[in-house]
Amino acid sequence: MKRNVISIVLGGGRGTRLFPLTYSRSKPAVPIAGKYRLVDIPISNCLNSGLNKILVLTQFNSASLNSHIKNSYHFDIFSKGFVDILAAEQNVENESWYQGTADAVRQSMKHLEKYDYDYILILSGDQLYQMDFREMLDFHIENGGDVTIATIPVVAKDATGFGILKSDDDGNITSFYEKPDYEILEGLKSEVSEENKHKGKEYLASMGIYIFTKSILKKMFEDGAGDDFGKDIIPNSIGKYTTLSYQFEGYWTDIGTIESFYEANIDLCQDFPQFNLFSSSPIYTRARMLPPSKINGSYVSKAVFGDGCIIMADKIENSVIGNRTRIDKGSTIVNSYVMGADFYQNTTEIVLNDRKGRPNMGIGKYCYIEKAILDKNCYIGDNVRIIGGKHLQDGDFGTHSIQDGIVVVKKDAVILPGTHIG
């Protein structure tokens, strides 16, 4: 079946709900699972689905995202595949930046004219899932879709936080409600599998993954259908175009908040995590050529390690430890995500800091860290205690912030020896 597709990954806006992780980077550039970036997920799903014409639309805080993509995705000279960046731009026809997800694609359509494609796959750059897009494309083509939306069954208590679609028995979407009130949910149930019905998952939530037939999307833009896919384009397409629901049965989560980001990472440490890093569909990322991690005298349970770590901790439990992390002796890390470092300190600097009692990059001696996220290049001094929990008040406190009881130590932050947080 013909699948002439171009994939567009939306680079995200300000990402305020993920602050401070998005202070100096866009959401898709946030490190996940110790060695990847969030943008690696949709790109890897595309490549694993045989779709190798990929554009990433960027606008806000895009420097680190641009650098990561440039250094990660290279195709041989005989391949027609690419992962290219389309940055937001002002020009003589339009002096405004992107006004929404659909406007970002609309402004980029002129750059797509040099490519041969029949279908456009629109993806978010900040979600965690594994999907074979070929199955969704086949569904779209076989059912004569103009627009196909990937949906996932959810329970009533989660439905109020999503765009909920109601579909008929043939998969045609008949109505759409953005974050509906609980009182009207009963009338929004759709046909789902018996397993999902038994679990109470009878509401179809939009995953923010769309397939458009090229000619239809162009016509929508010409007709001024709106600036946002979820708020404008999708609701306006129902009843006017063949708008289909493609039900996805696997694991999917939207990394929209510090809490969801934290939970998604910590879940990777479980015996059978919901997101399987060890499947036959690899997650691609930048090849950093780092040495293997070195662990000395530590008790380790349910932990995920990146590359190039030097670990002398007493205990690491239920935690993700990122590339180049250094943890000194006597320290304990529990229920935390330590992102690691972008570079190694030289030995001379480490010795000098030890003599002067200054923190080195990484985690010092006899520290205790629980329910925390440590962004990259943190300097944690000796005898530091960081303990998150619901007893803590949300707020920003200079070197760190607290959201939903999770302590987030900012990138490049210096936490002095003996400091207590929590």
Q: How would you sum up this structure, described in words?
A:
It is a single chain. Helix content is 20%, strand content 29%. Strands 15, 17, 19, 20, 22, 23, 25, 26, 27, 28 and 30 form an 11-stranded mixed beta sheet that branches. It folds into 2 domains: 5-268, Spore Coat Polysaccharide Biosynthesis Protein SpsA, Chain A; 294-415, UDP N-Acetylglucosamine Acyltransferase, domain 1 (3 Solenoid). It is α/β, with parallel strands linked by helices and 422 residues long.
**Beta-strand fraction estimate:** 25-35%
What is the number of domains?
2
CATH class of the largest domain: Alpha Beta
Largest sheet: 11 strands, mixed
**Number of distinct helices:** 10
Separation of the first and last Cα atoms: 57 Å
Morphology: globular
Q: How large, in whole angstroms, is the Cα Rg?
A: 23 Å
Assign the CATH architecture of the largest domain.
Alpha-Beta Complex
Broad structural category:
alpha/beta
Name the assembly state: single chain
CATH fourth-tier homologous superfamily of the largest domain: Spore Coat Polysaccharide Biosynthesis Protein SpsA, Chain A
**Stretches where pLDDT falls below 50 for ≥5 residues?**
none
> Could you give the count of β-strands?
30
Give a summary of the structure in a few sentences.
The chain is of the alpha/beta class and 422 residues long. It is 20% helix and 29% strand.
Helix and strand topology:
Blueprint: E1 5-10, E2 31-32, E3 36-37, H1 40-48, E4 53-58, H2 63-72, E5 82-87, H3 101-108, E6 119-124, E7 127-129, H4 133-142, E8 147-154, H5 156-159, E9 163-167, E10 173-178, H6 194-198, E11 203-213, H7 214-222, H8 229-237, E12 243-247, E13 252-254, H9 258-267, E14 294-295, E15 299-305, E16 310-311, E17 315-321, E18 326-327, E19 332-334, E20 337-338, H10 347-356, E21 362-363, E22 368-370, E23 372-374, E24 379-380, E25 385-387, E26 395-396, E27 400-403, E28 406-409, E29 414-415, E30 420-421
Parallel strand pairs: 1-4, 1-6, 4-5, 8-12, 14-16, 15-17, 16-18, 17-19, 17-20, 19-22, 20-23, 21-24, 22-25, 23-28, 24-29, 25-30
Antiparallel strand pairs: 2-3, 6-11, 7-13, 8-11, 9-10, 9-11, 26-27, 27-28
